Amino acid sequence: MSIFNYKKKITNHTYIILIVFFSFLVNWSYSRHGIFPVDSFLHYDSAYRILNGEHPIKDYWIVSGIFVDYLQALFFKIFGINWYSYILHSSIFNVILSILTFQFFISINLKKKFCFFYSLSFATLAYPISGTPFVDLHATFFCVIATYFSFLAIKKPEDYLNWFLIVSFYFFAFLSKQVPTTYILVSNIVVIFFYLLVNKKLKTLNIIFLSLLFYIIVFFLLLKILDLNFNNFYIQYIDYPLSIGANRLFTFNTSVKSFLNDFKFILIPLIILIFFKIKKAAKEKKLFFSIDSINFLIFLNLCIGLILHQILTKNQIYIYFLIPLIFALLQKEMEVLNLKKKNNLVYLIIFLVLFLTIKYHIRYNEGREFHDLSNKNITEYTKSVNLDETLKGIYWISAQYKGSPKNEIEMLKKVKFKLNNKKNIMLISHYLFLDSITSISLNAPSRTHTTDGTSVPMIGNKYFSYYKKLLYKKLKDNNISEVYIIQGEEIETKVFTQFFSKKCYQKLEEDIFIIFKLNKTCLN
């Protein structure tokens, strides 16, 4: 059994064409309305640097997103290094997600008109919230796709392609971001292996193992080809992020009120769905062993993993795309249970999903809350093409800059001009596109430069000395004599100075930059 059944594909041709156009255009349009530089351009310069022979882990520090970097590099290679290539990536991803979501609804035997409606809702609330490629969203949606294929694989365990695809998408998810992938993957491994062992599907377990072995071999081959040291990968991508996650877990603090307020439209239908599933399983006396029960546990693990991730990361909420998924499953459950006044309840659900889709569309797509632009007048944007032709297409307004968008662009034009007249420098900036629009390499030591411990190890972290050695090596290998920080960004200078004694640098300030002139004898 496959998500793409040939006959159904022809029958649903019109629906799919409409979903393709809608899901592409909604992301393409809203991705251009305002930016939050450190998030919106997270993979821009990283992908550019890959095409220029610099690789994450080896040449600059990262803690997540390696798969997204290389995927974006592929888009840049094919379509050119520009903003349109960048949002083409996320827009196509939104299309693929939305089509698979439609096919998923078809596979659970919802009526096509409802499948179409829920898919449009999903397309609106999925990638457009960010609009641009982003690690959390890629990891999350690869897990969603793996969940879709899990439903099919559980129904027909002997269809080995589905199991290979499940392993594939979890692999891509983990290399996009470790969490929420790990939360979802670990819990679903328990559920799936329990089901397969109880039902004595040993051949299926062999296929899963061989698929996993295949990706392990591919992974180590890629490390060899790219000359990436596994120990460095382990430290940067696994052990250091674990230390961040542990600190967040131990300092976890959220109120019941804020939790319920943030997730009420996900939790309420999910609780109702759980009640219906338990009622149905008890009636059939197959509480844990039925296909339906196992599939629901897989979906429940997805929801719980995503909610846990949102609580621990304390980032902007992006999981409202779960609303059409949960309500679609709830509608299907009501049809199976044949409840009284079923039709009225179905139309109530449709109304609620429509209302919530519009609500969160206005808040996150129109208001760009994910990029902290809810308090900005988005209509006061300026055109990014004034900064560089490759950035054409952005309606530039950002939450990061305190002045007007026009002043920000003028400031960045001065930054670009002055950087083009420098050599052997390092730039530390949240504007993660400057490397691609200047004529020199800016030698950033890390993809991002926050001082909360999520970007690089801070004093007290066990990997502080490890990162310090990498930083010193980069400074020496590239003969760097000056390190620049842009004045208007208000980046804390300790992101650099904490790795040096005061005798190792001279601090200068001018209208555009804070400059650290290095005493190179300190690098020995």
How would you describe the overall organization of this protein?
- With 524 residues, the chain is mainly alpha-helical.
- It has two domains: 6-371, no CATH class; 399-523, no CATH class.
- Helices cover 62% and strands 6% of the residues.
- It has 20 helices and seven strands.
- The protein has helices at 6-11, 13-30, 37-40, 44-51, 66-79, 83-107, 112-125, 135-155, 160-176, 178-198, 202-225, 230-250, 256-284, 291-313, 322-337, 342-366, 405-419, 434-437, 464-477, 494-497, and strands at 33-35, 382-383, 395-398, 425-428, 482-486, 505-509, 513-518.
- The strands form two sheets. A four-stranded mixed sheet has the order 4-5-7-6, with no helix packed on it. A three-stranded mixed sheet has the order 1-3-2.
- The mean pLDDT is 90.
